[in-house]
Amino acid sequence: xxxSCLCQGVVFEITGAITNLLYCxxxxxxxxxxxxxxxxxxxxxxxxxxxxxxxxxxxxxxSPGEHRGFCSRCGxxxxxxxxxxxxxxxxxLGVLDxxxxxxxxxxxxxxxxxxxxxxxDGLIQYEGFPPG
Length: 132
Description:
By secondary structure, the chain is mainly beta. The protein has one helix spanning 27-33, and strands at 2-4, 11-14, 19-24, 38-44, 48-52, 57-63, 66-71, 77-82, 88-92, 106-108, 124-125. The strands form 2 sheets. Strands 6-7-8-9-4-3-10-11 form an 8-stranded mixed β-sheet. A 3-stranded antiparallel β-sheet has the order 1-2-5, with no helix packed on it. Strand 8 and strand 9 form a beta hairpin. The radius of gyration is 14 Å and the shape is globular. Residues 1-106 form the CENP-V/GFA domain.
């Protein structure tokens, strides 16, 4: 599976599965993505490979130990690195060029969702993180 940023400067490949697909409505994801929510999943660090443009990445520590990576040229949000879980990355699904074959299963942090957005699908909604 391949992915890239808006300007095509950053290109990556994933050799494994993307798991835990969901929609996050927290304030940070909304601000970071300029949208009502962020569609995201998880990928194993060892299965994520840069093909081009890693030097264009910049990171912002949005929460202690959580570093959001974005393209410094076009601003595309790409991934999140976790100090406490270096074996795992959070992946912004919007930068995928291929279909991951799965769909998000729930909405999280709906307690802080944008007031102007109405969740209209039948997916499970959680006030914070899902249990477990």
